[in-house]
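Predict the 3D structure for this chain.
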Amino acid sequence: MEHDDTPRPETNPATAPWERLMTGQGFLLELRRLYDTRFMLELEMLIGPKADVDDLRNGVEAAARAYVRERRLMRHRKPGKWEHRRLSALSEKLDAVSAELTRIQKSPNCTGKLAKALEELPPSTDPNAARLFALIDGAFGPGDPVAHIAGLLRLLQSAATHTLASVEESDPVSYHQIDLDNWNSRPKKTESQPIAALARAFRPYWERNAMRPYSAGHYDQSTKQNKSAAVDVIHLIGRKLEPDLPRTRVVTVMRML
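Done. Predicted structure below.
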């Protein structure tokens, strides 16, 4: 009998599945564990004979990512006065590091030695960094890992700069005030937000694969529930992330889409 030697992320039964996806170290592994072959078969049967299981799997991943992003957004706190200064300092430092890496890359000796050191450093120095390097090595090979790390740092620097440029005023006080105004005018946080994000992300996949409307359906007096295959599907996907998700919340969300 064959054994599955695929490494699985550590799980804590007390932790909600969406929290494991948010903070875990194996997003795709955890996602495949949650949405396994049996789940995909059930989903395919609910969608109908037009269903493309590969497209649906992509849709489930997109929906789960949207759910986790919304949960991350819900953790935002009231803007602090030091955010502008911190982002400015980060952007400047990363810009300087990127410039130094550009100089280093002009020397095959420097880049070769750095690449060798990256490969030899024990994973225990920083497990997350080691996993990231393993991804780079797996995707691009051992040719020039320093170049790909430099690209990642440039992306981070651009993100910091873009965040600062998202408001017209570069003055820290004005930046904070605009951020504060946006915070005060934000919609009230509700537990429906993550499911709404999930449902919006899955909608194009439903429209390509299903032959029924993407709606909350009609209320059935005999069952005291809305009759809707779309609600059943979103509830099925959502419960894998949030096991106590009530079907009524999905109905409410589908009414708003």
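The chain has a mean pLDDT of 86.
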